[in-house]
Amino acid sequence: METFFAQLANGASTGALYGLLALALVFIFRATDVVNFAQGEMAMFSTYLGWSISRPLSLSWIPFLGVDRHLNLLTWRPEVFGLPLYLGSENDGLTRLGYLVVLVVTVAIAFVMGALIERLLIRPSEGKNLLNAVIVTLGIFAFLNSLANFRYGPVPQTYPAPFRGDAVDFGLFKMSQHSLFALVVAAVLMIAVYVFFQRTKLGLGVRAAALNPSASQLMGINTGRMLTLGWALAAAIGCVAGMLIAPALSGISPNLMFGILLYGFAAAVLGGLDSALGAVVGGIAVGVGQSMVVQYVGSQWSDIIAFGLIIAILMVRPTGLFGAPAVKKV
Amino acid sequence: MTVAPAPALLQVRDVTITFGGLVALDSVSFDVGSGEIVGLIGPNGAGKTTMFNCVTRLYRPDRGSITFDGRDLLRVPAHRVAACGITRTFQNLALFPSLTVLDNVLVGQHHLLHADAVSSSLRLPTVVSEERAARAEACEIINYLDLDAYRNTYVRSLPYGVQKRVETARALVGRPRLLLLDEPAGGLNHEEVTRLGEQIRAIRDRFALTVLLVEHHMSLVMAISDHVAVLDFGRRIAVGTPAEVQRNPAVVEAYLGGQDEDGTHA
């Protein structure tokens, strides 16, 4: 029984990360009707950028600083009057504050990257055949994957995680600290996204722009900027998912997000491609389902069942669990 | 007609727009004076909604000028028109069906709120109080238009007549100086139309607005308009007070000789 609950907890944690990626897919799909195939690779690439800045950074190019200065964000230990401000650390010297700094900086970079991709690559195909934009996302997929292979090589690199101590014992089951951390971060992010869309003027603007662009313009909404914001947010959310997934797997490699993206798709399709709630529920369902299949059926079945599920849902209930039925007025 | 020396609030001059070979508007000119209710009428396909789309900048005219309160509207992008003081309703409704009535109305205030992305994600106190004030004002207008009972209802589940009121609320909450109403009486019964006429006047007085109205319902237009401009096949064929326009032979010709319409008699 303990294995069952442990699998349930781990499945929920992985599933929350699938849910984040599905949420990013849903964002872009709702705003532009485009399925962003590059979502996973954008997350992978920004995760790599996070890895780069978590390495000791050479400052030797700055004059007057001395030649051999290095800045290591991960082991940054600021103290005020002997009081440690770095929020605890792991055995290898990684501090929680250092991780937080790397996380925030990386997510900010991903945000800008998402905005630039929309402005420079997606915007030109706007208003034309939807297929154009979809093919562009496939191009970004291939480009980022090759660039990561070229720049970082195919060998997986270990990825920093802020909590690596003993598993936490909940009585019924044990859960690794990282899984718990990932679950909490994903939950907080999902609530933040909900509040943003339901309670703020800007979130309402993004929703309105997605629903009826020309009417929204006449309400004073700059619809172009809302699209850019949607892509930027999706990239930032995908980046968080990538940074939490990499340590749970064998580290980061250029193909890190390939399988994850497919599970993210499964989650989004299960929940309904236009439903944010559906993405979250679908993600957790897929994650739990996957870990149950691995435990009780056999790991070789996990992909087969997941993608059999996508096909079955698309045939039986194409709108997913929470999606609105597509009504096209002619 | 307009004796006042002050220039009209909205001045449309020689506006021409073509779609392919079709001349949808052909050198159309008219004025809308401040505080007036002006009717824009004409048979189907005369170019009335096209005119609205030019004023709200969804279309760009090929020639001509549109000036609002001394400002060249053709230099204003569509998403800034609301901030200039012009809002509108749509002939076939352009609401957000999967949002609630309150959210739909709140969208109409978008251009009045100034919080940027950073301060609104940090929920700074100024942002919170601004959004609270916006919500209060939206609720006030929802009450004013008797939509209180539907405040948290999804728009797609509401009857057509109620949806039209929601659209009016969304246009009003943007604090316009010029309100464009595109066929507000469409789909309403006789009694409702009478009430609508009174309501449009009441709204004009209460919110100190100017109204430009596209409408097929002649009795409504003739009853509430200060001036009427008549379009036919993209040309302005008449302009004047309701009484003058009704006597104008070109107008009678356009309606009776042209298509099977509501008729010109009030």
Overview of this protein structure:
With 330 residues, chain A is mainly alpha-helical. Helices cover 65% and strands 4% of the residues of chain A. Chain A contains eleven helices and six strands. In chain A, a hairpin with a 2-residue loop joins β3 and β4. In chain A, α1 (2-32) packs parallel to α5, α2 (39-54) packs across α8 and α5 (177-199) crosses α6. The model of chain A has no long low-confidence stretch (mean pLDDT 85). With 266 residues, chain B is of the alpha/beta class. Chain B folds into two domains: 1-85 and 176-266, P-loop containing nucleotide triphosphate hydrolases (Rossmann fold, 3-Layer(aba) Sandwich), CATH 3.40.50.300; 100-174, no CATH class. Chain B has ten helices and ten strands. Chain B has helices at residues 48-55, 78-84, 101-107, 117-121, 125-144, 160-172, 190-207, 218-224, 242-247, 249-258; strands at 10-19, 22-32, 37-41, 63-68, 71-72, 86-88, 178-182, 210-214, 227-232, 235-240. In chain B, the strands form two sheets. In chain B, strands 6-7-8-3-9-10 form a six-stranded mixed sheet, with helices on both faces. A four-stranded antiparallel sheet of chain B has the order 2-1-4-5, covered by helices on one side. In chain B, α3 runs parallel beside α6 (160-172) and α7 (190-207) runs parallel beside α8 (218-224). The longest helix of chain B has 20 residues, at 125-144. Chain B starts with 9 loop residues before the first strand and ends in an 8-residue tail after the last helix. The model of chain B has no long low-confidence stretch (mean pLDDT 86). Chains A and B meet through α6 and α7 of A and α2, α3 and α4 of B.
